[in-house]
Amino acid sequence: MWVQQILLGIIGLSSGVVIAGGLFALIVELGVIADFADRTHTADKILLYEDCAALGGVAGNLISVFRPQMGYLGFLLPVFGLLSGIFVGCWAMALAEVLNVFPIFIRRLKIVRYSVAFILSMALGRGLGAFIYLLKRW
Predict the structure, then answer these.
(1) Where are the transmembrane segments (predicted)?
(2) Is residue 96 part of a domain?
(3) Pairwise CA distance, residues 16 & 96, whole Å
(4) Closest CA relative to residue 35, chosen from 89, 83, 84
(5) Which residues contact 9 (CB under 8 A, 6 or more apart)?
């Protein structure tokens, strides 16, 4: 019984490490952190930015898992909201830059006449996924 629990713990921890590594690799690959360093003219501190992004992910996971009580620290919620908004805005900026890849990809693969079908299928898939998610929640 305890061997099964230990094995499940190891698998869960390993899966979390892999997913977190993939997320931070995506953040770095999209150029969010490098873009920050470029815009603020602090390229010499890029490793510090990457460490802060990783620590933010770890802190977010710890808060998500353990759900600590805020108590008298409730005044920090606006700061957290501001930083979360900045993070989401940066993701939106990075993903908008990635969307420039789609027209190039479509032209290179010579699938221009099927582009409407691809876009429609992505939209329908997203809508169907959201519908199934909401259906299971009810």
Answers:
(1) 6-34, 46-66, 72-99, 111-135
(2) no
(3) 27
(4) 89
(5) none
- The amino acid present at 136, given as its one-letter code, is K
Is residue 31 within 8 A of residue 94, CB to CB? The reply is yes
pLDDT computed for residue 35 by the predictor: 78
Q: State how far Cα 7 lies from the chain centre.
A: 28
Is 118 domain-assigned?
no
- H-assigned helices in 31-76: 32-40, 46-66
Check if the beta carbon of residue 48 is closer than 8 Å to that of residue 55: no
Domain range spanning residue 37?
2-72
Splitting the chain (138 residues) into consecutive groups of 10 residues, what average pLDDT does each group show? 88 80 76 80 88 80 77 81 80 71 74 78 87 84
Domain-embedded: residue 78: no
CA 110 to chain centre: 31
Joined tokens for residue 17: 């490490």
Q: Count up the domains in the chain and report the number.
A: 1
Indicate whether 120 belongs to any domain.
no
Reading the block at residue 117, the tokens are 């079908």
Cβ(79)–Cβ(53) under 8 Å? no
Total number of residues shown for the chain: 138
